[in-house]
Design brief:
Blueprint lengths: L5 H29 L6 H42 L4 H7 L3 H43 L3 H34 L3 H41 L12 H42 L3 H23 L16 H28 L3 H24 L4 H9 L4 H33 L5 H15 L3 H23 L4 H50 L13 H40 L13 H14 L1 H19 L1 H37 L9 H45 L3 H22 L7
Helix pairs in contact: 1-5, 1-8, 2-4, 2-6, 2-7, 2-17, 3-4, 4-5, 4-6, 4-7, 4-14, 4-15, 5-6, 5-7, 5-8, 5-14, 6-7, 6-16, 6-17, 6-18, 6-20, 7-8, 7-13, 7-14, 7-15, 7-17, 7-20, 8-9, 8-14, 9-10, 10-12, 10-13, 10-15, 11-12, 11-19, 12-13, 12-19, 12-20, 13-15, 14-15, ...
Length: 745
């Protein structure tokens, strides 16, 4: 940009340098992981089955979504010809502006989708390389070595997320300058769309396999968690990777890039208003500071156990990760304050970043309270197992409902701080402040993703160990790491939900701002706020609030259909001579094939629901109703996502508490009730709940890109024809989601 001085250009060069360092660090983590031993042949046989199943699933999923991505690439290119690009684009590129922006948005979309795919695919593959090596370390009795391998393999995904997210957003801004929002929307949409596909498919896969394996193996046959006689266990272990590794990585990556997109869009508005360029430079530099802090924090994890100062020494893996998270957070906050005062000449931006980091930290104890067996909510669920599965499920539901309220309060308080800081300024300052909270909240994405990926890596290591019959000492190490992984997964799920809400809220504000700009250009009265006192906006709000219910319903239905087929297959396998005796291995690949097919069935239809409904509302009821629709999606989506994630997590941990020997332990009536409660909660916490995160952001990004079209062509014959086409696609998506495929009937 011409407006940037030499110092600011150096800042941007430094941001790109940090992004590249993050990718180099990720490469080093991968090499450090694969250097470790893979253990004996028994372990490698189990591991290879997991590896083949996971890679086969991702290859099939990529083929499924490629057609949609190619179709949308064409739509995004042509969209710039339907509605001309911004005035900034014409000022920069003259008569070539339309072609340049069309190419820029299209290429940015492809880059965003590619980066999101790489984060999910490569992250999962390195996680799989790590899980067997964790088992091998545990066999040698090396607790710290097992922790180090698991955490480093997870950190690879975190640093890849940091590096690619920061690199993509910054390079697009450098190339397009003030016209960057036109291209950045394509970048954000590409990443978000792929994340939605990965979240839906991975969630259906992992929970269909888990529910099917548990209902037959644990409830009917009283077998342990990963007993090799259970034909569903390999599919279950594969599911941990495609759901929690690939799905979660893509999910947090798109939140990471969407907060950059929204902060730059709002920052450019403030640049026009004030003439100050720090509004657009500051968020990029803070993200670079966060990447640097994450590198330091993640490197420190293995050293906390033997830290020379006793008060800072970690007692277990969980404490070591939290110590590193706190270290990264302190470095980021201090550096952000120093940079804000030195560069921008004020402290408010850094305070908002600190609020975002604080919001992420607050979710740790909040999630722990509602999901840990140490506290009253899970203890009440455990107590309810004495009277059967019905009361167990009811207790789990009540815990999730209560937790969603407190989560909304925490998010609301953080947003209110932006209001208090800028209440004397024009509204756009407050909106930008919310974007800064999102920038701060996801500044430690490297740590967050590392903690999340640690969970399935430790879980898989435990499964590999049990299926290859390792000794008790190794099993104890892996069980301890697995327990820590359950906690870190629950925390990062909550963090992903909160970040999705903050990111979606920032996009919502960008929507209002962008619509106002387009209306001003067309000589219309600009939209400055969304009223809920008119009939059309009430309709939009109600329909928006209903979408998370419809989306969740069909996600859970897909799990139920697939799990039914898996239960049938696992029962057939148990009837084979020698399987129950352990002399003949079941055919794991059959269950893997069933689950892979089932997970692909509803991908397109669920995405179609998310894309078509906001466009229908906007075209039929006008752009202000679409804004109310977005408000409904954000509110209900946040409540439902937390409710489902916590309900499932609490029921899962209640089951694990009983399996540790309480209330009669494994095989008792209380245990059977807890297993049924867990299988009920599984699709809530790992399928429908997490998939709401990218769905909320897809809806907001689609609306943001479509708003100029809706404003310009509202009420024309062409808009009504397009609305009817969208309604037809929506009806098809509903019918497709309600219909079982022949392979599942």
């Amino acid at each position: 940009m011409d407006e940037l001085n030499n110092l600011e250009q150096m800042f941007l060069a430094g941001v790109i340098g940090v992004a590249i360092i993050s990718l180099i660090y990720a490469y080093w983590l991968w090499k450090a992981t694969i250097r470790e031993s893979k253990g004996d042949s028994k372990m490698q046989k189990v591991w290879n089955a997991i590896k083949v199943g996971a890679e086969g699933y991702l290859q099939k999923q990529l083929k499924t979504i490629t057609f949609v991505l190619l179709s949308l690439t064409i739509v995004l290119f042509l969209s710039v010809y339907v509605v001309p690009p911004s005035a900034e684009a014409f000022a920069r590129y003259g008569n070539n502006a339309t072609l340049v922006i069309a190419l820029g948005r299209t290429i940015a979309f492809i880059v965003g989708a590619t980066f999101s795919t790489l984060v999910g695919q490569l992250g999962m593959r390195v996680a799989i390389q790590g899980n067997i090596r964790v088992t091998a370390k545990a066999v040698k009795g090396d607790y710290n070595g097992a922790l180090t391998v698991a955490y480093r393999a997870g950190t690879f995904t975190g640093m890849l997320t940091d590096g690619l997210g920061l690199l993509g957003g910054t390079v697009i801004f450098i190339i397009f300058g003030k016209a960057a929002p036109d291209a950045l929307l394509g970048f954000g949409f590409g990443g978000t769309l792929v994340a939605l596909f990965m979240r839906i498919g991975g969630g259906i896969y992992t929970k269909a396999a888990d529910v099917g394996a548990d209902l037959v193996g644990k409830v009917e046959k009283n077998l342990p968690e990963d007993d090799p006689r259970n034909a569903g266990v390999v599919a279950d272990l594969v599911g941990d990777n495609v759901g929690d590794c690939a799905g979660m990585a893509a999910d947090i990556f798109e939140s990471y890039e969407v907060t950059i997109v929204s902060s730059l869009i709002l920052g450019l508005v403030l640049l026009h208003l004030t003439g100050d360029t720090f509004w657009i430079i500051y968020p990029l530099v803070v993200r670079a500071i966060g990447v640097f802090s994450s590198i330091i924090g993640t490197l420190a994890v293995p050293f906390w156990e033997k830290f020379p100062i006793r008060i800072f020494r970690a007692r277990d893996a969980e404490e070591a990760m939290f110590r590193s998270y706190e270290l990264s957070g302190i470095i980021t906050v201090l550096a952000a304050f120093a940079f804000a005062i030195f560069y921008a000449g004020e402290w408010k931006l850094a305070l908002l970043n600190a609020v975002g980091i604080g919001l992420a930290v607050v979710f740790n104890p909040l999630t722990s309270y509602f999901t840990s067996h140490k506290y009253k909510p899970v203890k009440e669920i455990v107590e309810s197992t004495k009277s059967g599965p019905a009361t167990t499920i009811l207790s789990g539901l009540s815990v999730g409902m209560e937790s969603s309220v407190w989560s909304v309060f925490v998010v609301s308080i953080s947003i209110a701080i932006s209001y208090l800081i800028y209440y004397t300024m024009p509204p756009v300052y407050m909106l930008y402040g919310v974007a800064m909270i999102g920038i701060g909240m996801l500044s430690l994405t490297g740590n967050n993703v590392a903690m999340d990926a640690f969970g399935p890596i430790a879980d898989n290591a435990n499964g590999i160990g049990e299926m290859s019959h390792v000794g008790k000492k190794a099993w104890k190490i892996m069980a301890d790491l697995d327990a820590v992984g359950n906690t870190t997964k629950a925390i990062t799920k909550q963090l992903a939900i909160a970040s999705a809400v903050i990111a979606a809220t920032a996009l919502f504000f960008s929507f209002v701002t962008d619509v106002g700009i387009v209306q001003t250009r067309l000589g219309l009265t600009p939209l400055t706020d969304i009223r809920i006192s008119t009939l059309d906006t009430v309709i939009g709000f109600l329909i928006g609030g209903s979408l998370p219910f419809l989306f969740s319903s069909y996600s859970i239905k897909a799990v139920a259909h697939a799990a039914t087929k898996i239960v049938e297959e696992v029962r057939i396998q148990f009837k084979r001579p020698g399987v129950m005796e352990g002399t003949v291995l079941p055919e794991y690949n059959k269950v893997v094939a069933i689950t892979t097919t089932a997970a692909q069935k509803d991908l397109i239809s669920l995405v179609a629901l998310s894309v078509t409904l906001p466009l229908i509302v906007g075209l039929v009821f006008k752009v202000e109703a679409l804004g109310a629709f977005l408000a409904g999606v954000i509110l209900v989506g946040q409540l439902m996502a937390v409710f489902m994630a916590v309900s499932g997590g609490a029921l899962d941990n209640a089951k694990k508490f009983i399996e540790d020997g309480n209330l009669g332990g494994k095989g008792s009536d209380a245990h059977k009730a807890s297993v049924e409660g867990d299988t009920f909660g599984d699709p809530l916490k790992d399928t429908a709940g997490p998939a709401l995160n990218p769905m909320i952001k897809v809806v907001n990004l689609v609306s943001l890109m479509a708003a100029p079209v809706i404003v310009q062509y509202q009420g024309t014959t062409g808009s009504w024809i397009f609305a009817f086409v969208l309604i037809a696609i929506f009806i098809w998506a509903v019918s497709q989601s309600k219909k079982q495929s022949p392979s599942l009937s």
